[in-house]
Design a protein that fits this description.
Elements (H helix, E strand, L loop, with lengths): L7 H7 L5 E2 L8 E4 L3 E6 L6 H10 L8 E7 L2 E7 L4 E2 L3 H4 L2 H16 L12 H10 L8 H5 L5 H10 L6 E4 L8 E4 L2 E5 L6 E4 H14 L15 H6 L5 H12 L3
Helix pairs in contact: 8-10
Length: 257
């Protein structure tokens, strides 16, 4: 990793630590880490604003990284944080032990829902997200999943989602609750990373993304593990599977790709 163009304050905080590149995830950031810190770099000048805001608000409420330093320098965004301890929920040790993993995923959801939303500074309801998407509708791309679900264009999908809103069950939502963003230690939850899309939202927003991530990490999409039934997540949560809401929030997520 080249550091000659880094801000001097950041170099001082890294203080010669060896940082290795982490290629997990699809955030668009360059991610480097040591055993104690994580550095994220993005070419967009205002990329980490929402993530920093939520990390600071969540400090003391949920186990999340602490912001050590952030700045925009030479057109790039830099965010230095403490490293979350443990393993990602997509680690082979957990994917091969669904009897351990699935209850921990349910616990992660319940921990999110335990956060008092009365003072949460951000709303990420479907109405809010659809309004944001409508502003940049001309830049949206058609995805294979849209086509599989019968939508020929992002505009057609946006119209459908706007006309078929679900009744909200508002909770604190992570916003991107895929397995790489959940950290586990042994048989306990360690914490959450990548909170830039967090805020008040329907509980099924996180359920849908977590369920899909569990499915895709075990059905051969990303990896194959036998004996994993993603629908067990609903049993652990004590709720019935709502296929309508799952589909709605998975389709909504496609408009952010």
């Amino acid at each position: 990793m080249r550091t000659d163009n880094f801000p001097k304050e950041l170099l001082a905080m890294i203080n010669g630590q060896a940082l290795n590149k982490n290629n997990t995830g699809m955030s668009g950031s360059e991610v480097y880490e040591s055993d104690r810190i994580v550095l994220k770099i993005h070419s967009s000048a205002d990329c980490y604003r929402d993530e920093i805001r939520m990390l600071k608000w969540l400090d003391g409420l949920l186990p999340v990284p602490k912001v050590l330093y952030n700045c925009v320098f030479a057109g790039k965004s830099y965010l230095l944080m403490t490293k979350m301890q443990g393993k990602m929920a997509c680690d082979a040790a957990y994917l091969s032990s669904p009897e351990v993993l699935i209850p921990l995923l349910a616990d992660a959801l319940k921990r999110l829902w335990s956060v008092d939303i009365s003072c949460c500074p951000v709303k990420r309801t479907a109405d809010v997200e659809l309004a944001e998407i409508a502003v940049r509708s001309e830049t949206l791309k058609t995805t294979p999943f849209m086509l599989e679900e019968g939508f020929s264009s992002p505009a057609e999908l946006l119209d459908y989602l706007s006309c078929h809103r679900c009744e909200d069950e508002l909770v604190f939502s992570h916003g991107d609750l895929c397995l790489p963003n959940i950290f586990l230690t042994g048989e306990k939850l360690s914490g959450f990373i990548d909170t830039g899309d967090a805020g008040i939202a329907d509980k099924w927003r996180d359920i849908a993304l977590c369920w899909r991530s569990l499915k895709h990490n075990t059905d051969g999409t990303y990896g194959r593990y036998e004996g994993v039934d993603p629908d067990r997540l609903f049993d652990e949560l004590g709720i019935k599977k709502d296929s309508k809401k799952l589909r709605y929030y998975l389709l909504l997520d496609e408009l952010f790709h």
